[in-house]
Every structure is written in structure tokens, then in C-alpha cells.
């Protein structure tokens, strides 16, 4: 998606350790108009698929998923929580995932009442690097007996193996921008065709 690639080039900041900071428009300050364009593109890419719910992980995926849901007939958005709280009651699906950006493992929790066997879900998130967050969501989906219709990612780091692993496993993964390389010295970011 050219609009997203241009925004990454303009406002993205490359940090040491292959970190791409896009907090100016994607995961701290939110450009809702851009989110709407992204949702429209995912609706086009997943056209013809049954989508009953969108599933994401807190916190950065929530805004993107909510805006995208408008393009799928206002389907509900469910987000996996990263911490247990007194508000989480009843039976739950729980797994653990490793976060590349936070460099730690955390729980991923969804109340069983929000994922029902036989439902068709679309997974959406802001970034895909090593694929650990998506693997965790997929594990929860399998446990719940829901069908993963596809995976929508805003920015995929194509030089890391998460995308290849998910595609090789047979998932319909649609990334709107695939970063091929990042140079922290020059600030240059190259993209590959999605």
C-alpha cells in the first residue's frame, strides 16, 4: 500500500536492533484516516471470505482493528489482553508470546465467551517480525475451534522470518507494507512488493 510506505519513509525512525519506530502515526499517535485506508485495503484483499470477528492483541492493534472492522460490516473486534486482571473473569484461553519490541514474554488472554467454535476470524496487528504474537493468537483460535480466515498486518519486516513461516503454514497473510531493508546510518528504508 503506497500511502503506508510513503508515511513510513517520511515519519518512520530506524533504531538500533532492527527497530522501526512509527509512533507518529501508527502505534502511539493514530492517523485514523490512514487506518481507514488500511481497513479498506484489507477488505479488498479478503473480499469473499466470511469474517465474523476481528481478533488482535492489545494495545497497538486495537485502533487499527476497530477502524478496519467498519469495512467488514461492523463486525466485533476482540482483543487479547496481555495481563490478568480482576475484570477478566470466567473461562479463558491463555497462551504466552515473546515480544520482539519489548524483549520479553507475556501472557495472551481471551475470555472464552468472545470466541465461539465455528466462527471465522481475521487476525490484525500493527507489526509482524518473528511472528510470535500471531502464533499465539493462532494457538488461541485453534483451542477455541474458530477458523482463521486470514491475517492482516500493517508493517511486516520481510527480512525476519515471521511472514515466511506463516505463509508456509498455509495462512492467507496480507501485509500492507513489507520492509525489505532498513539502514540506521542513512535512514533508508526499502520495500518489497506485497
UniProtKB/TrEMBL annotation:
Keywords: Cytoplasm, Glycosyltransferase, Purine salvage, Transferase. 5-phospho-alpha-D-ribose 1-diphosphate binds at residues 129-133. Pfam families: Pribosyltran. It catalyses: XMP + diphosphate = xanthine + 5-phospho-alpha-D-ribose 1-diphosphate. One of its GO terms (cellular component) is cytoplasm. GO terms for molecular function: xanthine phosphoribosyltransferase activity. GO terms for biological process: purine ribonucleoside salvage; xanthine metabolic process; XMP salvage. Xanthine binds at residues 20, 27, 157. CDD domains: PRTases_typeI. Pathway: Purine metabolism; XMP biosynthesis via salvage pathway; XMP from xanthine: step 1/1. Its EC number is 2.4.2.22. It is found in: Cytoplasm. It comes from the Bacteria. Residues 47-148 form the Phosphoribosyltransferase domain. Homodimer. NCBIfam families: PRK09219.1 (NF006671), XPRTase (TIGR01744). Belongs to the purine/pyrimidine phosphoribosyltransferase family. Xpt subfamily. Converts the preformed base xanthine, a product of nucleic acid breakdown, to xanthosine 5'-monophosphate (XMP), so it can be reused for RNA or DNA synthesis. This is Xanthine phosphoribosyltransferase.
